[in-house]
Amino acid sequence: MEKVQQDIAARNKTVKIGDKHGWDTVSKYEGNPLADNSDDETGRNQGYTINSETPDRLAYTDASSYVGVGYIVHFSDQIAHQMWTNEEKLRSSTWRELKAVILTLKSFPDHFKNKFVKPFTDNQNVAHISEVGMEMYYIILVATVLIIMDSANSVYHHKVHCPKNLRYRSVDGSCNNLRHPTWGQAGTAQRRLRDINGRPMVSYEDGKSLPRGFPNRLPDPRLVSNVASDPALGPYNQFDKIRTGQHMAFGQLLAHDFIETDIPSGFDCCNRSDSNFDNPEVCFPLDICYGDERFPAGCKHFIRSTPATEDPYLPSYLEQKNLISSYIDASFLYGSQRNLTLELRVPNSYPGNLLPTQKGGNCLKLSKRDRCPFAGDRRNHEAPNLGLNHLLFVREHNRLSTKLHELNPCWSNEKVFQETRRIIIAQVQHITYNHFLPLVVDHDTMRRYNLYSKTNGFDHVYDDSVDASCLNSFGIAPWRYGHSQIMAEQSELKKDFRTVFEHRVEDNLLSPHLWQRSCGKHVTSLSRWLATEPALKIDNFLVEGLRDKLFYITTPPGSDLFSLNIQRGRDHGVPAYNEWRKFCGLRKFRSFDDFGKFGSNLALVYKTVDEVDLFIGGLLEEGENGSVGPTFSCIIGIQFHRFKVGDRYWYESSDADFAFTIDQLNSIKSTSLLSKIYCTNFGLNEIQDDIFMIPSLKNPVSYCRELPDLDLYLWKDKTCAWATYLSGSGYGPIDW
Fold first, then answer.
1. Contact 614, 576 (CB under 8 A)
2. Domain range summary for the chain, segments of one domain joined by +
3. Annotated binding site for heme b: which residue ranges?
4. What average pLDDT does the segment 304-318 reach?
5. What is the C-alpha separation between 375 and 384, in angstroms, rounded?
6. With 80 as the cut, is the pLDDT of residue 119 above it?
7. Residues contributing to the annotated binding site
């Protein structure tokens, strides 16, 4: 009896199913479950494909359900076959199928299991049931499976109804993929990549949920931060020779367009009286060593990310939730919840043409006149450069919507809003893939993952088998490369580009003060600084304001962003750096000498090279022309390929239901320069052609009026009769 219980306990794991690209997706079964699980032409394990429609086919209650019965049971046996002992493989197929169904049932979430499964999965019943009496038990189990699948479908997936011919994408990302309506949707789980053998790239200490290295197998992140940031191994905080501050700032804005991991509040992980003080599912504090130059020794508060628990098809190991839409859809501007979008749409602008005020906002107010800004993403006030870019695109939307309304007075407010939103999203996508991203990854990565847009015309690349959901590993390490680009000072420049004010970065985090003060009169001088001054070089060094004084005003003595990034990676079960090198087809490091001059420092804290965290390992790599190194390029390339190919509404699409006209698309491609948008909305007179690169002979400064602008007459609706422009009609967020 004990052996049976041990066997079932050992095998009580939810089976993960990979798509044909070898990337992890979690949904419901589709296709032939008996198909050969061989490698496809990509060289990755094909596994089984998935389709959210399949459970509907399994939920029949009439005579045709017998087909579904065989489907479920045989599928369960095929999945469990790899776990059978040699003795069990000799048992009858009926016995194995029964046991496989039981294992499947036991993997369902508790709220389904307790209601339906418990009476039929008692280990004692399994142990004593005879081969002769199996048939009736077998039928009961199958009926139970059908009930559970039907319940799960109605609770979680049936409610997603997707009209097929929608011209405009949803706000929350749902129904972008008609076969898999929840892919990329706000509030769903972040995804895991899979290795060449189909195994998910996940590394929890217990295989399920405990952070990698828990409790103390790995060095404390602050120690790693100290040895990796040793100024003696500099040069320290070098300026980039190519990229401007706006390249750093746009990267942060973009991050807030596709990922927000939920971090709960209300706990004190360093207070022994807190009920979760010793609960590793909630608290994972850092342990600061004696002798640290900045922080007192002992416990450093850290709360683990909120787990994704809503979907019954999640794997047996912990996943984290993405609160916002994964698609590149300007959700930083429009939000990822319909109610938020509607709340942002107001008829009048605000003093200084700034962002509206958030009711009950919790930003840092450095003066009595500061107001917490309200925008599509609640993190808009984390840094002054972030608030500036939010303001930039709000003003751009208002500008375009006003002109579209003037051109087409017969359009409803809703149509003006949605058509403007389509244009803004297209601009963001084009700028991202053709101006910003080529300065993040190297040219080979851009080509390998088909990241460049076509110069002209349509490029229908959509593939509904590609899940555009944000990857856990991507957001937790590679995309945080930009933290090393952040400069120590945020400056203001006069018209002649001379510096008039400098502000320490740590003094203005979480506050909108710099760009709000004097009713927004400093917006132009701040934007000159971002547009022309160099960012810091992409490397392993973070400025003092981030590594020693992060949020020191609100939570003294502050924190260390470098340490937090490492700890968050362990919290999410992200595998070590060497595992990612192997995944990307790179040579695994065999000794600390492979890290060059930093190897001896890393050897002081890590026991082996296989323990090194992805964040620090990736930052220590050097890429082409100052871009990120090969490991980060690999993961970033995969993610942006998925963002593009998995987006049904991709701006280059030729789909007749929502495509731009060929002339409209070509105008977007030829005029979508962030420099022009900057000039138009921030009152600049001159700027270099590519705002992401510092001015040079190859990137000369031009008068703003000479930069091409989008031809909105291409959106002129010929069916509209000319009418008098009606002002203040409230057709968009802020003054749209």
1. yes
2. 2-159
3. 483
4. 80
5. 14
6. no
7. 483
